[in-house]
Amino acid sequence: METRLLGFEHAETVKDVANWANGIIGKEVPGEPGYTVVKVIQFQLVQLSNGYDVLVLVEVKEELEPLNLREADVEAIVNITSAVDERI
Q: Origin, by domain of life (predicted)?
């Protein structure tokens, strides 16, 4: 797994920060298509005069696109792998 830093600026309350952090789990990482947030590892909350900014370290995983194999490809793979099994 990999990690990324995400930021949230100008939250009005700590509850807004918590809702945002809980809401990013299972969603795609902004600006990084194919990566999904798995969990929040750590966060840093900075109090401002009118709210909060936060940095969140998250664990991400890459969502690999499924292979779209044609039926002929599947048959060729089956033939190759079955031939390997027979030689062992």
A: Bacteria
